[in-house]
Design goal:
The chain is α+β, with helices and mostly antiparallel strands. The protein is built from nine helices and 20 strands. The strands form four sheets. It has a six-stranded antiparallel β-sheet. It is elongated, with a radius of gyration of 22 Å.
Length: 409
């Protein structure tokens, strides 16, 4: 099981570029894990080409994915709430294969009659700490719904300091839009450095640790590096940091003094070289259509409800990154409709996160997280697992009470 748990983190990190590529390089937050978890639950019902598609999308065979999903639901993380549910309309005609698949779902998956919209909305509020108010899909016309939910509300073990937005450099458009930004304190549970990567060149990295076992990583590359590349690099470095692997870092003595796109390097009176990150507060509230063929939900629909019935798959996600903590939630759902209906319209080195960048939240074991070394067999199934990820392109003012405010117009 330990080997499978390690594989799952890589599988989720591999799924993330698919999801973010479909969403695009706009300001957003998503949960690749939330989508992956739903596909993993559906995968055992698949056959033929749909099974092949899901194996490719999930990054592992259906059996491994299903066992991983069951493991995650059976061993909840202390600060990442997780839930899954399957609902069907009473009297709906379903195949014998569906009944066998349903009986094999983990016992933690809620199974029952499809409630009305109010019931679905109540379920998502209960399993998202109230951060998501409405279920991603409308219950109208549905006869089968499979859903997952993930949520976290955490405080940094060491809060950020505040700094004037001018710290982002005069070249950054964010420096004139904002008044205050976040400055990471030295040492403590803030990790900050310049990393060497084969895909994105030198990138700046900041990681904040939250009480209970969550590491939120921010990674920025040169402005010309595509968002998809930066997000993939952020997932990889995040897993390495969370699991105690070595990340190749740039020595400050190898770099030229002066100002560049990602940092200002200067000489100061100090006992050792150091990096200090400055980055904006931010929040995002997103809704994603998951019907793109590359995401695997068409194959999942065929697995649990073969036939021509129309269907929907969506994810609602939100996140807030502030001086004092981080909160995020995502609800992912696939629903099968009874009949066609009109579709509605839905709407020191001073590391400077001064242009759009990636952020990834990685779950860790509360004890000894990120310290590496032995003891891996005792790690829980969530250790090193990416839970939420974001592309940050709309910063907000940092405030002293930990909330964030929209950028002034």
């Amino acid at each position: 099981m330990t080997a499978e748990r390690s594989l799952v983190a890589d599988c989720v990190a591999g799924y993330a570029p698919r999801l973010h590529a479909v969403i695009g390089a706009t300001h957003h937050v998503a949960s690749p894990l939330g989508a992956w978890l739903l596909l993993a639950l559906a995968a055992p019902a698949s056959t033929g080409t749909d099974r092949d598609t899901l194996t490719d999308v999930l990054g592992c065979d259906a059996g491994t994915a299903a066992r991983a999903a069951a493991d995650l639901l059976a061993h909840p993380h202390p600060v990442v709430a997780s839930a899954a549910a399957l609902w069907r309309s009473s009297g709906a005609e379903l195949s014998p294969g569906f009944a066998r698949w349903r009986s094999g779902l983990p016992p933690q998956v809620t199974v029952g009659d499809l409630p009305g919209q109010a019931g679905l909305d109540r379920w998502v509020r209960e399993h998202s700490f109230g951060l998501i108010d409405r279920f991603p899909l409308s219950a109208e016309g549905m006869y089968l719904v499979l859903a997952s939910a993930l949520a976290t509300k955490v405080s940094w073990t060491v809060p950020f300091d505040l700094a004037p937005a001018a710290s982002l450099s005069s070249a950054s458009p964010w420096a004139t839009r904002l008044r205050q930004v976040l400055r990471a304190p030295r040492g403590g549970d803030h990790i900050q450095y310049i990393a060497v990567t084969p895909d994105a060149g030198d990138v700046i990295v900041h990681a904040a640790r939250a009480a209970g076992g969550l590491l939120v990583l921010s990674v920025a590359a040169a402005p010309e590096v595509p968002a998809s590349t930066v997000l993939a690099v952020a997932h990889r470095i995040g897993i390495q940091e969370a699991t105690g692997q070595t990340v190749q870092r740039r020595h400050l003595t190898d770099l030229a003094l002066g100002e560049g796109a990602l940092w200002l390097l200067r000489e100061v009176t100090a006992t050792a070289d150091a990096c200090i990150a400055v980055l904006p507060a931010w929040s995002a509230d997103s809704s994603h259509n998951l019907k793109d063929p590359s995401l695997g939900f068409a194959a999942a629909k065929n697995a649990i409800a073969p036939g021509p019935d129309p269907w929907q798959a969506r994810q609602s996600a939100m996140a807030r990154y502030s001086r004092t903590g981080f909160e995020a939630a995502a609800a992912t759902a696939i629903g099968i409709e009874l009949a066609m209906r009109p579709s509605g319209r839905r709407r020191e080195a001073e590391l400077r996160f001064a242009h759009p960048y990636a952020a990834v939240a990685i779950a860790t074991d509360p004890q000894g997280a990120g310290q590496g070394g032995g003891g891996h067999a005792s790690r829980g199934p969530w250790h090193g697992l990416p839970v939420f990820s974001a592309w940050v392109s709309e910063p907000e003012d940092a405030t002293d009470d930990g909330a964030s405010a929209g950028a002034p117009g």
